[in-house]
Write a structure and sequence with these properties.
single chain, about 950 residues, alpha/beta, Arc Repressor Mutant, subunit A, Serine Threonine Protein Phosphatase 5, Tetratricopeptide repeat, Rossmann fold, 5-stranded parallel beta sheet, 13 strands
Length: about 950
């Protein structure tokens, strides 16, 4: 597990490259102070001085420091080998300094200056730790500003030292662009100016060097009223007279290959991948061992070549002996991949080999190439490789070389036979996509149309090529509103047409076709059909049902698609397509299959989801009425979950797919499947607090039920009424529940009438009309007793008891709830038992029996957690805090209220969360007095 704390840029902590959530700016500021002073005690006064602005000090400063430190400690709880400890004099962050980029930077610089101040690599490695201005993203206090200034000065000093070394090594040409930028930022720095003058002169630009000196002389006089320093004046005279001592050392004058294409001008993001490549380079041995190969993979347009070129160009100092590059054209539709002899000949030309001396035999050419790069510090970029055999002959034998290989396929052979390190690329996140568009189009244009930019980013779905095409089209028409382009991209059916930059070879459709055409026929069919699967991803069993193939054959097809980077496998056994790849795959399916064939495939996967969701729902609540299902479609091979935990896990995994599947069934007019999917999902929705999804499911089911016979409509209206009530849409809830009751009465169905009265009781309770709620609960109990269904009677008894308790009739309430508890336990109804224990806890608390209330609430909480019912757990935790507080057990009250608030927030129950947070503040205020 790799842990890193970053101060030389945005302040953050990361574990295995994944950022740790650190909260708001002031927590980051506190963490920054502790990291700067790592392993040293920092007093509370120092923390207040460094992390708060003077005019924003809290009312209780030391309490505020203690609370914020607790939040920092919580944020770092999952980070191994790191601890924030409390001491009499303050607080101390115990951490290995090597994990903090600031301390690693200083150690590298100090060690290099002490032992070998001519070494390039350590200085370059130290500077490579920087990711922008230091201590970014924190509260900007005076202390932070002071430390930031000091760090920037230290970085500048290292850059100057490294430049001196590189100039001594004859790397003036490679330094020119970098020095030009730095001189613009530090126009009066005379040491930097001298380095730039020398690089200009050595690059054959004597006149430019002299002109630059004159400009500097005038600037110094105007700005500071001084003349250039004696060393700079002496350098000027040497340049003026072309002094021999300024010449490049003879040993460094040998030409080196510079074959890298220009880097992407507006590259952004990819911090984790760049860090991965850096770590591979840092771990590369100086001698011995294997060549470090990074096989950069990903679908067409994901940015493989951009990443490779950007990384190589920004690390040129690590490769003083040059760079070799070849585009192998492994997926070029216009012709064959670049032959080996062509690639090697290009390398030999770059290495300065006299054409007359190049051997004719291809193997001899490869041996000559390997001999020439042996022992050299070079980077070799093998771009767009078709397969392992395509690149293996081009791998050097020297361990001092670094090779970057890009391919649309996963080159497993490189990993197996050459120890390659894979760097697989995914889409870029939303903030990086916005940054990329901003850098192309300018801040003002992006800021002027934020909604249009949001749509453009969403439609491109993080694919760099798509973003580049959008930016190119917008740039071509600077006066056009971005909303016009967003309108073109909005419709999925025409999105690939809109992503056309005007170059037939650069359209997204063309780029994706190159990978598609390289597939086997069976994989090509699977690629198209997989686009029909509803939802963001698909598991192997569902894919087997969709394709009407056995699991083994389906896995082989998915592996081929994954190797071609047309699908991803983010977790074992689950596959997904990028949104734009899916649109292209759907076009392929439309060309290859008629509507009946496509509908049959969708029916198969829908059948799979309905059958398995029904089985999982039965695990969650076996007391629900059984839904009759047809026999499974051929090819569907669902493995039913063996227990409640497995069923809940299956629903968690497939939830988004079930929502999308119901939407697809609704679009196709498959009414029975729409209703069934609402039915089999509702228990899971209730236990996990998916209120909006439950509402949408039953709205669709009500529409579908109008086309179905029997009790489908009554049940749909009842569940929709319940869903409306959970979202406090009281009028809508009452209307649907009354309609459910009327339909049940019309059919003289006693069971449905009882359930409708039960839900009406809950609806009136939400409107604070507890008397009407009790009337409906009492009627539900009468009907349940007439049905002779003990489990339903127990639920109804608890309902009467709960509503009676809300009216203050605690004796009636307790009697009904105790009777309900006995029935639930007798019939092993865990969910009903938990509900009833919660009711008894409420009754006990409101009759002054706080110890008994705590016991009942804790029993209920144990059962809710066993059921995976986080929705009801939140309410029980909320209520449990009250008897704890009444008993003076404030720490326990705080603990359960904090957990309740977190669950409420996770469910989107913001008003409930706010009330709990207010109680916590009141409790804290009471404790501080």
């Amino acid at each position: 597990m790799t842990v890193e704390f970053r101060l030389l840029g945005e302040v953050e902590a990361a574990v295995d490259g994944v950022p740790v959530a650190l909260g708001f700016a002031q927590l980051r500021c506190l963490l920054a102070v502790l990291l700067v002073e790592a392993n040293h005690v920092v007093s509370a006064d120092q923390l207040l001085d460094r992390a708060w602005r003077p005019h924003r000090l809290p009312r209780h400063p030391r309490d505020a420091v203690h609370q914020r430190i607790a939040l920092v400690r919580k944020a770092l709880a999952t980070v191994p080998d790191v601890a924030v400890t409390t001491h009499p004099a303050g607080y101390r962050l115990a951490v290995d300094p090597h994990l903090v980029d600031l301390h690693r930077f200083r150690a590298l610089v100090e060690q290099t200056r002490r032992h070998d101040d001519t070494a390039v690599a350590p200085f370059a490695q130290a500077l490579g730790l920087w990711r922008g201005d230091p201590l970014a993203g924190v509260t900007d206090t005076a202390w932070i500003a002071s430390v930031r200034t000091t760090l920037l000065q230290q970085r500048h000093a290292v850059e100057l030292d490294l430049t001196d070394i590189r100039l001594r090594r004859g790397q003036h040409a490679a330094l020119l662009a970098e020095l030009s930028d730095r001189v613009e930022r530090h126009p009066l720095d005379e040491r930097l100016a001298g380095q730039f003058l020398l690089a200009l002169y050595r690059s054959g630009r004597q006149a430019d060097a002299l002109a630059r000196y004159e400009q500097l002389r005038r600037d110094l006089a105007d700005e500071l009223g001084v003349h250039p320093s004696p060393p700079l004046r002496q350098l000027y005279q040497q340049i003026l007279h072309a002094a021999p001592e300024l010449a490049v050392p003879a040993s460094r004058a040998t030409p080196v290959p510079r074959q890298l294409p220009a880097p992407p001008r507006l590259f952004t993001g990819r911090a984790a991948e760049l860090a991965r490549l850096d770590s591979l380079l840092d771990d590369q041995p100086e001698t011995g061992g294997a060549v470090v190969i990074s096989a950069i993979g990903g679908t067409g347009g994901i940015g493989k070549t951009w990443l490779a070129l950007h990384w190589a160009h920004t690390r040129l100092d690590r490769f003083p002996d040059g760079q070799l590059h070849v585009d192998l054209r492994g997926f070029d539709p216009a012709g064959q991949p670049v032959p080996l002899v062509t690639a090697v000949r290009g390398f030999l030309d770059g290495l300065g080999v006299d054409p007359a001396t190049i051997p004719v035999d291809p193997d001899a050419q490869v041996r000559l190439y390997r001999s020439l790069v042996a022992g050299k510090r070079m980077v070799i970029v093998l771009d767009n490789a078709r397969d392992t055999a395509h690149v293996s002959p081009l791998l050097p034998g020297s361990p001092t070389c670094t090779v970057l290989v890009t391919s649309r396929r996963h080159l497993g052979g490189l990993v197996t036979t050459h120890g390659a390190h894979c760097v697989d690329l995914d889409v870029i996140p939303e903030h990086e996509a916005r940054d990329l568009l901003t850098r192309h189009l300018g801040h003002d244009r992006v800021a002027a149309e934020p909604k249009a930019v949001d749509e453009l980013v969403a439609c491109c779905a993080g694919l760099p090529l798509a973003l580049g095409i959008v930016a190119a089209r917008a740039t071509r028409h600077p006066g056009f509103p971005l909303a016009v382009l967003a309108d073109e991209l909005r419709e999925r059916s025409g999105r690939l047409d809109a992503l056309d930059p005007g170059d037939p070879q650069a359209t997204l459709r063309a780029v994706l076709s190159w990978s598609h055409h390289a597939l086997s026929d069976a994989a090509g069919i699977a690629f198209g059909l997989l686009s029909l699967a509803p939802g963001p991803d698909i598991g192997l069993p569902a894919a087997a049902g969709l394709l009407a193939q056995p699991s083994g054959a389906t896995r082989a097809l998915l592996n081929e698609l994954e190797n071609a980077c047309l699908v991803q496998q983010p977790t074992p056994g689950r596959y997904r397509m990028h949104d734009l790849v899916r649109i292209y795959a759907a076009e392929c399916a439309t060309r290859r299959h008629d509507p009946a064939e496509r509908d049959a495939a969708l029916r198969r996967v829908l059948d799979f989801y309905v059958h398995l969701a029904h089985a999982a729902d039965r695990r969650l609540d076996s007391s629900r009425p059984v839904v009759r299902l047809e026999a499974r479609a051929p090819g569907a091979e669902p493995h039913e979950p063996p227990d409640l935990a497995a069923a809940m896990a299956w629903f968690e995994t497939e939830h988004a797919n079930l929502v999308a599947t119901q939407r697809a069934a609704l679009d196709h007019g498959w009414h029975l499947e729409v209703w069934r999917l609402a039915w089999v999902s509702t228990t899971f929705h209730a236990r996990r607090g998916h209120r909006e999804d439950d509402l949408s499911a039953w709205q669709a089911a009500v529409y579908a039920a109008a086309h179905l016979p029997g009790l489908a409509a009554a049940r749909a209206h009842r569940y929709l009424g319940r869903a409306q009530g959970e979202l406090d849409r009281h009028e809508d809830a009452s209307r649907h529940l009354r309609q459910a009751l009327a339909l049940a009465e019309r059919r003289r169905d006693t069971a449905e009438q009882a359930l409708a009265h039960h839900q009406l009781a809950r609806a009136w309770e939400r409107r604070e009309d507890h008397r009407r709620a009790l009337e409906h609960a009492t009627r539900a109990l009468e009907l349940c007793r007439a049905l002779g269904r003990p489990a339903w009677e127990a639920n109804a008894l608890n309902g009467v008891g709960w509503h009676a308790s809300r009216l203050g009739d605690h004796d009636t309430a307790r009697a009904h709830c105790q009777a309900a508890l006995a029935l639930h336990r007798r019939h092993h109804n865990t969910s009903g038992e938990a509900d009833t224990l919660d009711s008894l806890g409420y009754i006990d608390h409101h009759t002054g029996h706080h110890d008994r209330a705590v016991d009942h609430y804790r029993q209920a909480l144990t059962l809710f957690r066993r059921l995976g019912n986080t929705y009801e757990s939140a309410a029980t935790l909320d209520r449990l805090g009250h008897p704890y507080a009444a008993l003076g057990r404030h720490e326990q009250a705080r603990a359960v209220w904090r957990e309740a608030a977190e669950l409420y927030e996770a469910h989107g129950r913001d008003s409930d969360a706010a009330q709990v947070r207010q109680r916590l503040e009141t409790l804290d205020d009471r404790g501080s007095r």
